[in-house]
Amino acid sequence: MPAGKIVFTYTMIPNNAKEQQQIMPRNKNRQTHQKHTVLAKADHGTFGRNELAIAGTTCPAVQKLAAQLSKSLSQKYRIGYVDAEHSNETNSDQDRAKTYTDTDLVHIRTESAQKFNCRKGLDNYQARSMFNEADLILLNGNHFDAQNQLTVIDQRKPVAPERLTNTKIMVLQEGVTHVPDYVKQNIKEIDRIPVFKIEETGKIVSRIDQLLEAATPSLKGLVLAGGKSTRMHTDKTRLDYHGKQQRLYLYELMEDYCNEVFLSCRKDQKKGIPGNYNIITDSFLEMGPLGGLLSAFRAYPNSAFLAVACDLPLLSPQTLQALVENRNPSKIATAFQKNESRFPEPLITIWEPKSYQVLLTFLGMGYSCPRKALINADIQLLDPPDPRELMNANNPRQYEQALAQLAHTS
């Protein structure tokens, strides 16, 4: 497949023609089952959040265009690619994997990539897991459907009207001068869809970039106020450093940088919070800050969260602004590193929606430390404008030190 920085490539080896259409067909006649708790679900296609099938042309032409697009887009985004195996292709790694006829999963490490060959096909849920970190998934539309489509007009392989699904971009193959009438009649709002020539790769890339920018997850604020403050011997979220409770101060501070802000707390803490503040109560219990993060993502799986702990009394608007301005939505998270340890500080971090699955995976392996997830994930690590602002105040001595520093700088 395509050259470029591909986060994951999946090539399906179908046993029959039907398997090329879907990974795991859903039973449309199945009655909705309401016995279990209804959860907010992430906006996913079959493979991921942002899918674009290239359809309407030959498979070699699809692969060539996908290679060109991924090469350019991978400078900014993480790109995935999905295709089916073709009879005229040779792949030494795949051939080697086929020798392990009784092995369900084969891992092949090469100089440029790590490859997995699965004897059993991926179902929808496994596919989404594999492509979790991809910002865009390009698919061969001759074999797979997707949320959105880049439709190529090619006389060699006219696209069937029923295959036109949510077209976002039209591309004219060499020798084609216009979009056929039957295509126009089967695409809603055809006049709003840009049309490019196949050789105008730069313009196609620019349009895809615009679509991805528009799909950037909104940023919500999360004040982590659900701790028990055992070391401070009093509720540190209620301590007054700036003329009001710290949890309320941070809430109001973050309103300038987030679309919406929430206080994260335990259920028993709700009574002490004024009614005009948004609240997310912990649904993942006894897990510390990780429980607050997971509870927030459970409620809003399509949003990113700027999470801030209440034990950062020196935090200023300038530091929050620096974090937001340098946010990298293509990464799992954007965080500051502490000077003394060089480790990321997880409790003043922007966590992207794709981090939800990462955090759950670490939880499933028995880890409840958000920092461990950051250390072992692909994150954007920043130097803080003022490292002193990352000082934690978790006990009475640190509380007095914070008050002294604030008095000195005021």
TrEMBL record:
Entry GO MF terms: GTP binding; metal ion binding; nucleotidyltransferase activity
Alphabetical list of Pfam families matching this protein: NTP_transf_3
Domain of life of the native organism: Bacteria
MobA-like NTP transferase domain span: 221-364
One example of a Gene Ontology biological process annotation: Mo-molybdopterin cofactor biosynthetic process
Keyword list, A-Z: Cytoplasm, GTP-binding, Magnesium, Metal-binding, Molybdenum cofactor biosynthesis, Nucleotide-binding, Transferase
PANTHER family named among the record's database cross-references: MOLYBDENUM COFACTOR GUANYLYLTRANSFERASE
Protein's UniProt name: Molybdopterin-guanine dinucleotide biosynthesis protein A
Organism, scientific name: Fodinibius roseus
Lineage, opening ranks: Bacteria, Pseudomonadati, Balneolota, Balneolia, Balneolales
